[in-house]
Design goal:
heterodimer; A: about 140 residues; two-stranded antiparallel ribbon; 6 helices; B: about 90 residues; extended
C-alpha cells in the first residue's frame, strides 16, 4: 500500500516523460478495485491470476509452512484473496522495460520490507527517454 | 514527503514494537524474520529476470475488468512494472 501511494506521487512525472506505469498483483479483481478506489490511483492494478506473469519474471516462491500458518491465523488467507491454494507469492519487484522490450531496470528483494525509491525509477526513465530523443535527433 | 524507505522503516518500527494498533506478539515477528532470512538464503532473487533480459509480454485484467496488454503500453513509451503481493 505504501509503495502504491509512493508510486502514485510520481505517476504524473512518469506520464510526462512519455512512460507508463502498472502494478501487478496476484490479488483478485474485487480486492484490486477497492485498493484502486481507496488510493485514487491514476494507474492500473493488474490481476496476475495464479501468478502466471510473475512466474515468467522468475519472482514466485512458496510460503513456508510456518508463515502459511501465521498468515492464516491473521485471516490473510491466500485462497480467499488470490485464489491461491498452494500459498505462492511474488517477491516484490520493480522493472523498467524499454520500447524494444528489454529490461533496463530490475529491483528485486526477497525482503519485502525493502523497496526501491520511486525517485530512482524516475531518474532511470529520464536517462532512457533523453537517450531516445537524442537518438531520434541523430537519425534525422 | 519523506522517501519511501523511510516511511516503510517507520511503519516497521511501530509494527514490530508490538504496540497498538497492531499488537503483534514477538513470536510472530520472529517467524516473519525467519521467513525473510530463509528466502534470502535460498537465492530466490538470483532466479528473477535481470537487466538486459527480454521482458515477457503480458495481457491481464485491470481493476475494472478491462484487458491491458504490455505491448500496447510499450507502443506509447517505456514501461514501469511493479510487482506486489497484495494489499495486506
Amino acid at each position: 500500500m505504501m509503495e502504491l501511494e509512493a508510486l502514485q506521487e510520481i505517476n504524473a512525472e512518469i506520464t510526462a516523460l512519455g512512460a507508463r506505469l502498472v502494478a501487478i498483483t496476484p490479488e483478485l479483481e474485487r480486492y484490486t478495485r477497492n485498493v484502486h478506489r481507496k488510493l485514487n490511483l491514476t494507474f492500473d492494478i493488474l490481476t496476475d491470476l495464479h501468478l502466471k506473469t510473475a512466474e515468467q519474471f522468475g519472482l514466485v516462491f512458496v510460503l513456508s509452512d510456518y508463515l502459511r500458518d501465521l498468515y492464516k491465523s491473521y485471516g490473510h488467507t491466500l485462497d480467499r484473496f488470490n485464489d491461491e491454494s498452494e500459498y505462492r507469492l511474488p517477491m516484490p519487484a520493480r522493472y523498467v522495460i524499454d520500447q524494444g522490450r528489454t529490461i533496463r531496470g530490475a529491483e528485486v528483494n526477497a525482503d519485502y520490507t525493502i523497496r526501491p525509491e520511486p525517485s530512482d525509477t524516475l531518474g532511470l526513465l529520464q536517462t532512457l527517454t533523453s537517450g531516445l530523443s537524442s537518438l531520434q535527433k541523430y537519425c534525422r | 514527503m519523506a522517501n519511501l524507505q523511510y516511511r516503510l522503516d517507520e511503519f516497521k518500527r511501530t509494527f514490530e514494537s508490538g504496540a497498538p494498533p497492531y499488537n503483534v506478539p514477538p513470536e510472530a515477528i520472529k517467524t516473519m524474520h525467519r521467513g525473510t532470512i530463509e528466502l534470502k538464503a535460498s537465492g530466490a532473487e538470483n532466479r528473477a529476470l535481470m537487466i538486459g533480459a527480454p521482458a515477457p509480454a503480458f495481457t491481464l485484467f485491470n481493476q475494472d475488468h478491462v484487458l491491458v496488454a504490455s505491448d500496447d503500453l510499450l507502443r506509447e513509451g517505456p514501461l514501469v512494472v511493479g510487482f506486489f503481493r497484495g494489499h495486506w
